[in-house]
Amino acid sequence: YTRSLWAVRNFHSLEKPENIEQPLLALDNISAYYGSLPVLKNISLQLKPGRTLALIGESGSGKSTTARVISGLLLPAKGRLLYQGTPLTADFRMRTREQLRQIQMVYQMPDTALNPKQRIRDILGRPAAFYLGLGGKALHERVCDLLRMIDLEPGDYLQRKPAQLSGGQKQRLCIARALAAEPALMICDEVTSALDQLVAEDILRLLEKLQRELNLSYLLITHDMATVRAIADEIAVMQHGKVVDQGTRETLFKPPHPPYTAKLLAAEP
Ligand code: ADP
Ligand code: MG
């Protein structure tokens, strides 16, 4: 029941035919600094509803900083964020609860992202209560649903703490915590980088399944080309704080490539 409601909510913009091509989120000419160090230089990106934009580029190119700007943790010196065509307040502290609900983050290190003292029941229950106003039995049902969505049996896991989970289970829990807000967009910053390959593949399959079921948009930050080939619809390549190449999976993986993209693709094992 909650799941179908959610799908309706995230599909809402598709009900208006003129909005079919409207990006869910757009970065319009964003520049940002750490102190006097320029880190983002005129970044423009568009994320489409229900699609995956992979953001790739070498370490230090500004991918995580782009995520920080989207989530309102770093204020851009210039440029705008647009959510469904409407300007989005840059500072997360000034965003409404509804605006905060729509964009959720998952990070590389689940260990540092999870409070070791909380039980799974609360790790998932708190955001579900905060964002959706659920309580009592409805909240409990929702938490159980979230656990089932990441293939964990509620009876076995509700009372556990993060230390009682494997690395892959912890990352799935972080994904479920993001889902508790019923977001439209998830920013996944190197979410498989700390996991061994088979576990990482499980996580990618889970993300794909969730996207299909919930019409989620992903900003998928990764340095792994296999991941990009597996699940990206569109790809943006960053270098030294700029987007130096951009395309769909079809166009970007076909030569000729701009020199930097060619180098990245060639580095693939
Ligand atoms: P990526 O995620 O692509 O590896 P980042 O966005 O983390 O890159 O970093 C972009 C640049 O900003 C790098 O040069 C990095 O050293 C610098 N940087 C990142 N975080 C900070 C910070 N908190 N203070 C100062 N400089 C930072
Ligand atoms: Mg990073």
From TrEMBL:
Principal subcellular localization: membrane
GO BP: any one term: peptide transport
Residue ranges annotated for the ABC transporter domain, each copy included: 25-265
Keywords on record: ATP-binding, Cell inner membrane, Cell membrane, Membrane, Nucleotide-binding, Translocase, Transport
GO CC, any one term: plasma membrane
GO molecular-function term, one example from the UniProt record: ATP binding
Cleaved signal peptide residues: none
Localisation: Cell inner membrane
Keyword Aminoacyl-tRNA synthetase: no
Protein family: Belongs to the ABC transporter superfamily.
Protein name (database record): ABC transporter
Species of the source: Ventosimonas gracilis
Organismal lineage: Bacteria, Pseudomonadati, Pseudomonadota, Gammaproteobacteria, Pseudomonadales
Residues of the full protein shown: 251 to 519 of 540
